[in-house]
Design a protein that fits this description.
- By secondary structure, the protein is α/β, with parallel strands linked by helices.
- The protein has a single domain, classed as Rossmann fold (3-Layer(aba) Sandwich).
- The protein is 37% helix and 17% strand.
- The chain contains 11 helices and 7 strands.
- The chain has helices at residues 2-13, 17-21, 30-40, 42-59, 127-137, 153-162, 188-195, 197-203, 219-223, 237-246, 251-254, and strands at 67-71, 86-89, 98-99, 112-118, 138-149, 207-215, 257-264.
- β4 (112-118), α5 and β5 (138-149) form a beta-alpha-beta unit.
- α7 crosses α8.
- The longest helix is centred in the first third of the chain and has 18 residues, at 42-59.
- It starts with a helix and ends in a 6-residue tail after the last strand.
Length: 270
């Protein structure tokens, strides 16, 4: 307890000035502060860029027809890498193409080639409604690629003790409390795709789980994330990325994030 208290006190001293200005986490105006944080922190920007590059690589094999839609875009800079992607969010922000809920999307049936998202699923209050919409909107062979919190020994310690969002591994596929951004259970991706994987396969046989990958134990933490100052000089980023690559065999113990890749069954394939 003494160690945790000391760490919490140290983190308080490392708080970014911008993060101290955020009073209501559901206020749409926060996005402009968050965009500024990402843009001026090279460690964080490069970490997110690596996430986008992985996602773009995975959707490269999605059907060429149809839209590519990013859900929960917020402070996303995906358009600098792929200008054709349609950005969306549940709250209105300047620079986001469309505003709607991932549980009720104003998109035509079979009109989407791929959905992409970073840290969004664990904020969705009813995952089943979300997956129903994925099935409806995706064209045959279409993909969903997301990066979400992982459940490892290290990540559980970090998320439980040093993150404001709940991490409840005994939870269900959704939750009731909280607003569009404050409502969350960071363990939901693990619950659905690891703990309840047979149930997901049974309920959504046309949404095939292609792969999951646990990764990135240190880069996000060392960037300071969206709340803290960057902990290392920017020039050391490639060395940290190399260290993470060398430690890949330990990702199931150390990784903070997981990449999840789903694909809708091709037409006539069940």
């Amino acid at each position: 307890m003494v160690i945790l208290s000391s760490l919490s006190a140290l983190l308080g001293q490392l708080k970014l000035p911008e993060s101290k200005q955020i009073q209501d986490l559901d206020d749409p105006n926060n996005i402009y502060l968050i965009r500024n944080i990402i843009q001026r922190k090279p460690f964080l920007w490069k970490t997110y860029r690596s996430f986008y590059q992985e996602i773009l690589g995975k959707i490269a094999t999605a059907p060429p027809q149809g839209m590519v839609v990013e859900l929960g875009s917020g402070a996303s800079f995906i358009k600098t890498l792929a200008p054709h992607i349609i950005t969306t969010d549940v709250l209105p922000y300047s620079g986001v193409d469309r505003v709607f809920s991932a549980m009720d999307m104003p998109l035509a049936d079979s009109s989407v080639s791929a959905f992409i998202m970073i840290d969004v699923l664990h904020h969705i209050k009813d995952s089943r409604r979300f997956f129903d919409e994925m099935q409806r909107c995706l064209c045959p062979g279409g993909k969903v690629v997301m990066i979400e919190p992982a459940n490892t020994a290290f990540s559980k310690f970090i998320y439980t003790h040093f993150h404001h969002e709940p991490f409840n591994t005994r939870g269900d596929w959704g939750f009731e409390e909280g607003g569009p951004l404050t409502g969350a259970n960071m363990a939901i991706p693990w619950i659905i795709f690891e703990r309840d994987r047979p149930l997901f396969t049974q309920e959504y046989p046309t949404l095939r789980l292609c792969a999951t990958r646990i990764h990135t134990p240190f880069r996000y933490l060392l960037s300071g994330g969206l709340s803290l100052r960057q902990l290392l000089p920017s020039w050391i980023y490639p060395l940290v990325a190399l260290a993470e690559w060398l430690l890949t065999p330990l990702n199931h113990y150390l990784g903070l994030f997981m990449t999840i890749e789903l694909q809708k069954a091709p037409r006539g394939d069940s």
